[in-house]
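TICKET: design request
STATUS: open
ATTACHED STRUCTURE:
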């Protein structure tokens, strides 16, 4: 009887330790993408404006690929103006930006893009194939692709303008 009285509290200790570890770690910082350093998965999508956009067509440029959704609150709403500002700063400097909308409704996505004045190409990932190929498990997620077509950075969560500009500058400085 006395052993049983101590067995239950002792069995609970590992669960408490695991929960404590989970509360004090940042899962976004801990999850490393096996795709970083590898060739980016090619894609061809139709933008909301009806034009085709393909990763192969952007080869030789630094490419920022951002996965987003209108229902992604607050992170996608926080980063939307940052993305548009960075795009405005770099659109004439050999940088391409592509927004890929996932698991969303057409009307809601268009309203989101209009709200933030997006001028960079955005396309809906119907069926989610592109998101799967990039290992996206939530939105927003942003990938930076170098001039040679390799994924160099992955950011889970809302992007910070200063950090994004720093990554873009480093990639622009690299030889083609």
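STATUS: resolved
RESOLUTION: sequence designed for all positions
ATTACHED SEQUENCE:
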């Amino acid at each position: 009887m006395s052993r049983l009285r101590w067995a239950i509290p002792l069995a609970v200790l590992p669960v408490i330790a695991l929960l404590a570890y989970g509360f004090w770690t940042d899962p976004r910082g801990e999850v490393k993408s096996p795709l970083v350093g590898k060739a980016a998965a090619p894609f061809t999508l139709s933008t909301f404006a009806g034009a085709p956009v393909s990763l192969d067509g952007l080869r030789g440029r630094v490419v920022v690929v951002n996965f987003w959704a209108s229902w992604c609150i607050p992170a996608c709403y926080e980063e939307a103006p940052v993305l548009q500002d960075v795009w405005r700063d770099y659109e004439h400097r050999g940088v391409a930006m592509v927004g890929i909308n996932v698991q969303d409704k057409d009307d809601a996505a268009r309203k989101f893009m209009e709200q933030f004045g997006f001028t960079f190409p955005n396309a809906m990932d119907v069926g989610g194939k592109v998101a799967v190929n990039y290992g996206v498990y939530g939105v927003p997620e942003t990938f930076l692709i170098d001039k040679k077509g390799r994924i160099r950075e992955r950011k889970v969560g809302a992007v910070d303008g200063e950090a994004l500009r720093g990554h873009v500058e480093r990639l622009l400085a690299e030889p083609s």
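CLOSING REMARK: The helical segments are 2-24, 27-30, 75-90, 106-116, 129-133, 161-173. The first helix runs from residue 2 to 24.
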